[in-house]
Amino acid sequence: MSTSPIVTFDAATLAFGSRVLWQELNLQVRPGEFLAVLGPNGSGKTSFINTMLGTTALNSGTVSIAGAPVRRGSNLVGLIPQQRPFGDNVPLRARDLVALGVDGNRPGIRIARKAVHTKVDQLLELVGASAYADRPVSDLSGGEQQRLRAAQALAGDPRVLLCDEPLLSLDLHHQQAISQVIHRQAAQHGAAVIFVTHEINPILPYVDRVLYLAEGKFHLGSVDEVMQSSVLSRLYGAPVEVLRVNGRIVVVSGDGQRQLPPDGHEHAEDATRESGK
Ligand SMILES: Nc1ncnc2c1ncn2[C@@H]1O[C@H](COP(=O)(O)OP(=O)(O)OP(=O)(O)O)[C@@H](O)[C@H]1O
């Protein structure tokens, strides 16, 4: 496996108007590496992903994929997007959505129908979606739809897999299953995984490094280096306590009264997990 970085940020700064999301970020992500990106709402996690998709431009510095400047539509990059329910007017079955990932984004290359069918079946099985392969996507729950998005992103066998809160609306069992599938992509295919999440515990066994964004600052390092009371309190500019309980990371407010997600903030959407569309 090559040890050259597949993703390189060099002195990268992103701001919207006077609001700086991060500055002078130097980051190299290597093939097979699993990078978790944490931070409160609005800290710039999706924007960070967008810079690697070529849809958001840096204010200064550079980002490159496989040594070349980022460009839109690169088939080196796969995306599991942040969840938005499919509307009733999406006339696709679950398997059609996954098939788009297999042959839908390669202009000029048509893969034989049978080969597409076989690959789609494999992907559906991988993410635990075989049981609803022929149902319309608009009839599926948020968690079921999310598993299809994972299958679609994996279909192109990307070298960089960008995951924008892929565990949202999944129950615990499927959080673990999807995390494992994504990790396998890194371990077996040498893909770099960049995984935005508010839930670090399901991916703790797989994470190599954490990039934590908050208040226009960042901290990059191993889980043990970043998930510390002193580091998070400094990033937030307020007391935050990080505890380890039975191998899980628990973040509590400085007064010790409230448990927070690992990004230190509460989220209304946490209550909607696998609650349906
Ligand atoms: N194109 C844009 N123009 C102006 N401001 C933007 C733009 N895109 C994002 N922002 C702002 O930048 C900040 C970071 O947004 P972003 O979506 O990256 O945050 P996030 O960390 O992914 O948040 P969440 O956890 O809520 O998904 C937000 O305040 C957002 O309003």
UniProtKB/TrEMBL annotation:
This is ABC transporter ATP-binding protein. Pfam families: ABC_tran. The keyword ATP-binding applies. Keywords: ATP-binding, Nucleotide-binding, Transport. Residues 254-277 are annotated as: Disordered. Gene3D superfamilies: P-loop containing nucleotide triphosphate hydrolases. The keyword Zinc does not apply. Residues 7-240 form the ABC transporter domain. Residues 263-277 have a biased composition (Basic and acidic residues). Transmembrane segments: none annotated. It comes from Glutamicibacter ardleyensis. GO terms for molecular function: ATP binding.
